[in-house]
Write a structure and sequence with these properties.
There is one protein chain. With about 525 residues, the protein is α+β, with helices and mostly antiparallel strands. Helices cover about 30% and strands about 20% of the residues. The strands form three sheets. Strands 1, 2, 3, 4, 5, 6, 7, 8, 9 and 10 form a ten-stranded mixed β-sheet that branches. It has a four-stranded antiparallel β-sheet with strand order 11-12-13-14, with no helix packed on it. The termini are far apart. Belongs to the RTT106 family.
């Protein structure tokens, strides 16, 4: 019998446990040629899928080994757990022997699952939060651990890897006061893309744009356990029962290399607080409104950075710079009775990009059944931030909410700002008030002359014929994008006057009354 090289300890360790026929095949493969590399390749493969470290001296990048090892463990775990059509209920006459085989098979699955979980060194993890309720990517109690390069979700009992997401793919983190709870509750949302996957992903175990959603009570109903990996030994952190959990959540989220967005009532505050909204973790108010996207209920959260459709997965985020424009980015329409509809319009991206020279109409998303009492608050939020709709952020430029409001007021008042020279000429003391009046009188005459000249220039410009390429409304089939109801009524009235011969001239009776009044 051919012996396996001593440099392959993992292969040598499991060789006696293999079925005899299969063990013979492995030994034959390893001794097929002198100095065959087969045993080293098999030993490395066993190390890789079992979660062990890379063999010393192997020409493999250690960082890539750990990253790929976690991804492989996730895929293998999904394949083992996936139910097959061959699994059927056994007949009662052969129940006992098959049940024993079934029990042995389940034990093998559990062993394989534990072997597939990557065993990383104590230096790799940074922070962990234990036994929290997750709704995505799995719906159960989980442990969530932040590593240097990945976010790993594991089963709290078996420690099997449920999902592993590279930190480089995460883009935003949200901390939300959950609506509809009988007591205060926080929801954490981690996004790898503002736009979720459309439809079911090709590989459910590894979606293209994964999302992580989990929640925790605002006040710990039982001790909350966390682990910090800062030194040679892990440090256990326990939040006692009855203590707030928000500081621990902020500590956890601060370890992620993504910006944290937390909607607050000073930016937007719902006016519909009652039984349906539940008890908010933020005692100052709820910074979101209840809405329906199709038949799915959820919440629109309004923040300084944009609007999030959250809690109901999949979540989606509309950043201010992604909204199509000041007037079309966010609209409140369909106000009827007690509800209205909020329409968010995102710029076209990817396959939806428009051709050069064409107008981008964007991608609209409607949210129905919004309480009409929320309309003034939503419109106030739009007035505050609409000057940022569709504008890309300048790198390194950060403004406060006060500065943003000042910028908006400055844009609206640009037409009313006087020149600095005029301002200086009018800044005199009270001793020269008579001279100022004379100067203002002369200035008014000059202004009148200048205005006459400007009117003459405008009238001259009106006589010039407009060209089609300079005005989109002159093109064939062109219509205004929006027309107010009052304008339509006025045009209809003018057409009726021309066709029916009616006018707004006073009647004979009115003329007689006017003559009587003059005689008196």
């Amino acid at each position: 019998m051919v012996s396996v090289a001593a440099e392959a300890p993992f292969l040598r360790a499991i060789l006696p446990s293999l079925p005899s026929d299969f063990a013979t095949q492995v030994q034959t493969l390893c001794g097929a040629t002198p100095e065959s590399p087969a045993e080293h390749i098999l030993d490395t493969l066993i190390r890789f899928i079992s979660g062990a470290e890379c063999a010393p001296g192997a020409a493999i990048d250690a960082a890539q080994w750990n990253e790929k090892q976690q991804a492989a463990a996730q895929i293998l775990n999904g394949m083992i757990r996936r139910p097959t059509s061959e699994t059927k209920r056994q007949r009662e006459d052969d129940f006992e022997p098959t049940s024993q085989a079934s029990k042995r098979q389940r034990s093998a699955v559990e062993d394989a699952t534990e072997a597939a979980a990557p065993r990383v060194s104590p230096d790799d993890p940074l922070f962990a939060i234990h036994s929290v309720s997750a709704t995505a990517p799995v719906r159960r109690k989980v442990d969530i651990t932040i590593y240097r390069t990945a976010l790993t979700i594991t089963h709290p009992t078996t420690h099997a890897v449920e999902a592993s997401i590279p930190l480089s793919t995460l883009t935003r983190a949200f901390l939300l006061p959950t609506r509809g709870k009988t007591k205060g509750h926080w929801t954490v949302v981690l996004l790898s893309s503002d736009i979720p996957d459309r439809g079911k992903p090709a590989t459910p175990a590894a979606p293209l744009n994964p999302q992580v959603i989990f929640g925790i009570d605002a006040v710990a109903p039982s001790p909350l356990s966390l682990t910090a990996y800062g030194g040679t030994t892990p440090t256990s952190i326990v939040v006692p029962k009855g203590r707030p959990t928000r500081p621990s959540l902020l500590d956890f989220l601060s370890r992620l290399p993504v910006p944290l967005i937390e909607p607050t009532p000073d930016v937007f505050k719902s006016v519909c607080v009652g039984f349906t909204s539940g008890v908010s973790a933020n005692q100052e108010g709820v910074p979101g409104v209840e809405a329906y996207r199709g038949a799915k209920a959820g919440t629109l959260w309004f923040a300084r950075e944009g609007v999030l459709w959250g809690e109901s997965k999949p979540c989606e985020f509309w950043a201010l710079e992604d909204l199509i424009g000041k007037s079309e980015g966010l609209r409140v329409v369909g106000v009827s009775g007690r509800t209205c509809t909020v329409v968010l319009t995102r710029k076209s991206i990817g396959e939806e990009e428009v051709a050069e020279g064409e107008e981008d109409v964007g991608v609209e998303t409607e949210f129905q059944m919004v309480d009409v009492r929320e309309k003034p608050g939503i419109e106030a939020w739009v007035r505050t931030f609409r000057h940022l709709f569709g504008k890309k952020k300048v790198a390194g430029e950060v403004k406060t909410i006060g500065q943003l409001e000042e910028d908006e007021s400055d844009e609206e008042d640009e037409d009313f700002v006087i020149d600095s020279e005029d301002e200086l000429s009018g800044s005199s003391t009270s001793d020269t008030s008579d001279e100022e009046e004379d100067e203002e009188g002369g200035g008014s005459e000059k202004d009148a002359e200048e205005s006459d000249e400007e009117e003459q220039l405008e009238s001259d410009g009106e006589e010039e014929e407009l060209k089609e390429e300079n005005h989109p409304l002159l093109r064939p089939g062109a219509v205004p994008r929006r027309m107010q109801r009052g304008v339509i009524d006025m045009v209809v009235g003018m057409v009726e006057e021309d066709m029916l011969g009616t006018s707004n001239a006073p009647s004979d009776g009115d003329e007689g009354l006017e003559e009587d009044e003059l005689e008196e």
